[in-house]
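README, section 4: Worked example with a bound small molecule

Sections 1 through 3 covered apo chains. Here we extend the same pipeline to holo records, where the ligand is supplied as SMILES alongside the sequence. The molecule in this example is zinc ion. Nothing else about the input changes; the structure line simply encodes the ligand pose together with the chain.
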Amino acid sequence: MSARAGSATRWDGRIARARELAAGDTPARETLSFYAQLADYQRSLFLAAADVPGAGDFLQAIDVDGAAATVPPFLVWLERTAPHSLALAATTMRDEEVDWRTLMRASLALDDAAVADTSRFAEAKAFVLNAVLQPFAEAAAIDRLDRSSSKPGMHSSRCPICSSLPCVGILREEGQGAKRLLVCARCLTEWEYLRVVCPSCGEEKFDALPVYTTDGFAHVRIEACDTCRHYLKTIDLTTNGLAVPIVDDIASVPLDLWAGEQGYRRLRSNLLRTADRQK
Ligand SMILES: [Zn+2]
Ligand SMILES: [Zn+2]
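The generated complex, written as structure tokens:
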């Protein structure tokens, strides 16, 4: 089985987990139901992403033409499937002449200024950009990791493949303890990162790095930093092996609300920007 086909099961896992959590007693039911459908759509994009032959650089390896061509049918899909405000924004974006290809290239190059948008639909546009790029970036990242023999290093809080910030952390069992990994918001690559270091400012003092948990989400940790006031949400797979980090992140939005009330800012929002919307 190719690395790509094998990795499609990761999308199956995300979809199944979102459906399962949406069926339970959760304040995030609507968001999770929408995410389950979105992940199913993204899975098809992931499988359709073309290999870019001979691409040396990661940014070149992403099928940006394919991704940009995907946007018009994705907007139609959003009109039918998304929550009301996003569906309305999709209708408007269909009528606008947006140069998605250029926007995608700028976004991948982390050129925030070129992607910045002050229009009424800025948030919806960013969502479309990120939702479409995520599976294409993941496909390119997997093909790349598959060819590379070296493992990503553990001292950078930026993704070793695409240099984006992580959207969520993971604790995974290792020997007698647990190791921490970060999950890239853009390409979903996971890489190991030191456990007691703030991924935002590099603070290492234990006393400045409080960890908050709550009974309602026993496997979800708010790993905060009192120096820079950012936090990373980390999903503890050692206490819940069924959790799927990017889905359990969406399900535990009350913790983001709480962290915001304490004056902490999330390092990087998730695709659905549930944390931002609560503010
Ligand atoms: Zn990445
Ligand atoms: Zn910090």
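What to look for in the output: Residues 141, 159, 161-162, 164, 184, 186-187, 189 surround zinc ion (ligand 1) (CB under 6 Å). The chain has a mean pLDDT of 90.

Section 5 describes how to batch many such records.
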